[in-house]
Amino acid sequence: MNITILFGGSSYEHEISIVSAITMKKVLKKSNLTYVFVSDEREFYLVDTDKINAKLFSSGVYKKGKKLTLKKGGFYSDTLFGSKIVEADVTLNLIHGRDGEDGKMASLLAFYGMPYISPRLEASVLSYNKLYTKFLAENLGVKTVPYEYLAKDDERKIEMSYPVIVKPVRLGSSIGVSIVRDASELDYALDVAFEFDTEVIVEPFIEGVKEFNQAGCYTDKWELSLIEEPQKEVFLDFEKKYMDFARDSQVLEAQIPDELKTKIQESFKTIYDPLFKGSIIRCDFFVVEGEVLLNEINPIPGSMANYLFADFEAMVHRLSKHLPKEPTIVINYQYIHSIQSAKGKA
Amino acid sequence: MNITILFGGSSYEHEISIVSAITMKKVLKKSNLTYVFVSDEREFYLVDTDKINAKLFSSGVYKKGKKLTLKKGGFYSDTLFGSKIVEADVTLNLIHGRDGEDGKMASLLAFYGMPYISPRLEASVLSYNKLYTKFLAENLGVKTVPYEYLAKDDERKIEMSYPVIVKPVRLGSSIGVSIVRDASELDYALDVAFEFDTEVIVEPFIEGVKEFNQAGCYTDKWELSLIEEPQKEVFLDFEKKYMDFARDSQVLEAQIPDELKTKIQESFKTIYDPLFKGSIIRCDFFVVEGEVLLNEINPIPGSMANYLFADFEAMVHRLSKHLPKEPTIVINYQYIHSIQSAKGKA
Asked: Which of A301, B33, B107, B153 could form a disulfide with A107 if both were Cys (CB 3.0 to 4.6 A apart)?
């Protein structure tokens, strides 16, 4: 199977996307991988699969590769006598953060009619924005952590008691996130968060909360990963998360009662179906007093959460054969014809 | 000012987009207009502004025009010695329905760094989907008509009493919409709606409800249109709406008390700011027992609701100078550098 890995992007998570992308070489061994890099300038470059490494990008050497143009049906490179398509059975959107998770890549790939693994447009917008994720979960009956919302110009006042956690509404990978232990620290935390976004949400910070991660997708059946209880630090900072994006070997399953496991799986399915069809996502849940709360949806998880699956590659191949399709719209110009007839101009 | 009018699209509203686009010639007289047509096959074509008419598209003659490619900074046509950009100060997204209102065009234009008038990505997704519009309005404290939601495979049962109105979640221009007078008609109305979408909302149908339309935008100040009380038929069917998209002369202002006018204007501003910055939208409100209820957001209204403004063209020019910009993200490869140093590979 020819898989195009699309990575990079104009995103604060550009660099971790590179790490995720390189990790794919270790976990998609039986596939024929093509790497398409989206530079910080949003130009597309073909990257040699044999030579891909992080330094290629930090050094700027990638610019010596072929520039690509996205057109109907795929990526094209210029040739002497026209242009040549980059062969792909499917494109894997691995751009974390802006461009990738916000719905832009989903839009581009859908518009140009390319089969792709990624949350679709609506799913992207609803999961990239943490406030909208709350709306979604609430509507689906999935409980979330309580929250307050603040825009940049709002009065800097919150109702809930400390400690709290402040998160920019639109970023992933803990960028701009702070734990605030008392009111005196709030201002600084908001300054930090508002460096990255115009809106934030504030949630209670629950010390030592049990966290469980569930990834999965729907092919012609549910394909749920094992459930991981991630190693607990206060919370993962950017550099730790960064290294996390290079994970490529399967982790141990969390030892939890069947009842809890079922609750987590059911919450995942409720979120996923039908909005996230076509994507492999990871949901992070908190368990508080026996209740499963959705903490976050990772619409394009680090290294695609490959380490949570027994056979990630086989699942990617199955998913590629079960991607949702946009309905076909036939345009027959019936109304223009009828109006022209009415006008006597037909 | 050079304005590119982007219209057509793979949309049920493809034909009314053509009508809207042609209408722009009559209302943007002082501007230098360039027409870029998105065919049903999602190919871009340059259309001669002097010769544009509806028949050009229904006859397929547009295919004789220049094909364009969207790349960084704009639309390009192939020339003998490379390619040439279509000069534009701003692009006006006039694609109604799918591709235009769903966020795809906003994504493409944002990704390629082109200044554009249109709801941005998030605003598109939240207003194109009538269910998400409910979430949004609720969160902003703007009242809406009560509703029930049904997916295609759900049991066909509703709680509210008849008559009701059944609407596909994602379409505009009354496509797939039915009024249902009693339970015996529900099944057929749902069949019709599910022809166009996998999800519907059902709302009470309020006979003779007062409806008021408010359009506007924010440039460096609020620019609100007059308020129209649209001519009332049971509801506008597709052909009536179609003709509506060709409107180009200013309508009469609704004669309503100042208090109601203020309520409508304030509701509009609450919905618009900040999510819809960069766009000219029209909100349709119902007034029920003195309460203003949001009925619908028209993210790309027919003929841009030009007929509601005293000087539409001047406003378009002002808006073009006050478009929101995506924040710049500087990528310095700091993490890749630091990890390479740690590995001793730098």
From this structure: B107
CA gap B13, B172 in Å, rounded: 8
ipTM for the assembly: 0.94
- Would you tell me which residues 261-320 of chain B have a C-beta closer than 8 angstroms to some C-beta of chain A? 274
Residue of A nearest to B8 (CA): A331
Which residues of A fall within a CB distance of 8 Å from B98?
326, 329
- CATH architecture, domain B2-117: 3-Layer(aba) Sandwich (3.40)
Average pLDDT over residues A36-61: 96
Residues 6+ apart with CB under 8 A from A262: none
Q: Shortest CB distance from B122 goes to which of A41, A129, A334? A: A129
Chain A closest-CA separation from residue B328 CA (Å) = 8
Note whether B186 and B158 are within 8 A (CB): yes
A33 in contact with B, Cβ within 8 Å = no
pLDDT in tens, B97-125: 999 999 999 999 999 999 999 999 999 99
CA dihedral B34, B38, B39, B42 (to 10 degrees): 150
Chain B interface includes A83 (CB < 8 A)? no
Helix, strand, coil tally for chain B in percent (to 5): 30, 25, 40
Domain A148-204: which CATH class?
Answer: alpha beta
B37 within 8 A of B15, measured Cβ to Cβ: no
Among A20-34, A142-156, A247-261, B12-26, which stretch is predicted with the lowest mean pLDDT? Answer: A247-261
Helix (H) or strand (E) holding A60: none
What residue ranges do the domains of chain A occupy?
2-118, 125-143+207-320, 148-204
Architecture of domain B125-143+207-320 in CATH? 2-Layer Sandwich (3.30)
Interface contact flag, B329 A11, Cβ < 8 Å = yes
Hey, what CATH topology would domain A2-118 get? Rossmann fold (3.40.50)
- Unique residue bearing structure tokens 């490959």: A306
Tell whether B40 lies on the interface with A, counting CB pairs under 8 A: yes
- What per-residue string of b and e applies to B100-131 under the rule 16 or more CB within 10 Å gives b? bbbbbbbbbbbbbebbbbbbbbbbbbbbbbbb
Token pair in block for residue A190: 């908001």
Asked if A322 is an interface residue toward chain B (Cβ–Cβ < 8 A), one would say no
Place of tokens 């792709």: A116
